Amino acid sequence: MCNPRVPFWTLGAVTYLEGCDNITQYHRHRKALNPVLKKTFSWFYDIVERRMSEELGDLVVFDDNLALPGFHIFGPKKGVTMTAQECHMLEQPLASIHTDIQYKEHMSYWNTFKEVDLKDVLSFTMAIRLPSNGGGLYIWDWADFDQEMIDTFNFQHNDDKVSVLKNKYLWENGSTNGYDPKEEPLYEEYTEGDMSYFIGHLVHQIAPAKTCLPTDRRITLQGHGVKCDGTWRIYF
Q1: Is the CA virtual torsion 166, 167, 168, 170 positive or negative?
Q2: pLDDT of 137 above 50
Q3: 231 beta partners
Q4: Average pLDDT in the 130-156 region?
Q5: What are phi and psi of 147, to 5 degrees?
Q6: Exposure of 199 by Cβ count < 10 A (0-12 exposed, 13-18 middle, 19+ buried)?
Q7: Backbone angles phi, psi at 232, to 5 degrees
């Protein structure tokens, strides 16, 4: 759990938590948890792989050479309710504003393929359970960053990222394609059982809970994908 104590867990090895600091630790965790995930969720993975292949028009493979798609879990453990303070914290923008660049930690693997597309990368979320008042994603789909901005944007404080998104000079100096510093992001509402995905370096953020209740939980399946030799390689 985070400090201050936020009721948040992950299930599965996670590139953005482990791979950025120690890729060896990531793979050690992957080797321990992938068999557990496959044993428990293989039926689920099979369905998602098939439906994603149909949707994207290319073969989708949950790649066991990397961490299998895992879960974000917000909320109390079974039989436990959250305190008023914990509910309040989940109503705050705790998650980082970011673009997904986890693929950079796995370049040694992508280099084993002939054709790899690191521009049109894939990210997806499937809502398994949502809070009583819903859940979703904030997106800044007008923030079309160039490669230099993609490489630096994530490693700033959230307040600095907000300043970047509202910085008129930045938008006019050629670092990005166009100037449209809207004050608020778009909100993508999730539906339980449905998957939301995007392709490319979309600026986004997990939306805070709305009027959180003590028994609320937010459980989502998470994953990313890189197209290698015509096949989407899915990982977490």
Answers
A1: negative
A2: yes
A3: 228
A4: 83
A5: -60, -35
A6: middle
A7: -75, 115
The 10s digit of each residue's pLDDT in 67-112 is: 999 999 999 888 889 999 999 889 988 788 889 999 999 999 999 9
End-to-end CA distance of the chain: give it in Å, rounded. Answer: 19
Residues 202-211: tens digit of each pLDDT: 989 999 999 9
- For residue 205, the surrounding DSSP H or E stretch is strand 203-206
For residue 207, what are its two tokens?
């939306």
pLDDT tens sequence across 51-70: 999 999 999 999 999 999 99
pLDDT in tens, 21-51: 789 999 999 999 999 999 999 999 999 999 9
Collapsed DSSP state (helix, strand, coil) of residue 43:
helix
pTM as predicted: 0.85
Quote the CA–CA distance of 141 and 138 in Å, as a whole number.
9
What gap in Å lies between CA 63 and CA 232, rounded to an integer?
9
**Cα–Cα nearest to 196, from 216, 175, 222, 217:** 222
Q: How far apart are CA 5 and CA 7, in angstroms?
A: 7
If DSSP codes are grouped into helix, strand and coil, which group holds residue 220?
strand
Helix (H) or strand (E) holding 35: helix 23-56
Q: For residues 214 and 205, what is the distance between their CA atoms, to the nearest angstrom? A: 23
The residue count of the chain comes to: 236
**Nearest to residue 57, comparing CAs of 236, 233, 231?**
231
Query: Please, what is the average pLDDT of the chain?
Result: 88
CA-nearest of 152, 205, 176 to 167 is 176
